[in-house]
Specification:
4 helices; single chain; mainly alpha; about 120 residues
Length: about 120
Amino acid sequence: TADIIPRQLLIVSRERASGMYGVGAYYFSTWVVTLPLEFFPQLLLASIQYFLMGLRDGFEYYATFAGILVLESQCAIAMGMLISALISNVEAAPKVAPAVVILFLMFSGFFLNDESVPTWL
């Protein structure tokens, strides 16, 4: 998603200057278009993972699991849209996005040293 907005920036700027619609309408419509393309694959992935991992039985638990996965996907799309809005160069935006993701991975606890964690956690 990091290269979507720079490719459309000239058209959006021209249409915004002519008063056809605002920036909010553009971002909302872009999100609505990407929603079904991202929602259903995430729902399918959640269904496969949930039942293969043998998690708790019950629809409310499955719905919570699937909802969290879909929300994480939507947050990633929003971050990609933000990066592509900040960097207008079509070639540079997909190169900057992994660097931003690396920052999130570094501070998420994924690379946490097990010996430094207290035993009560």
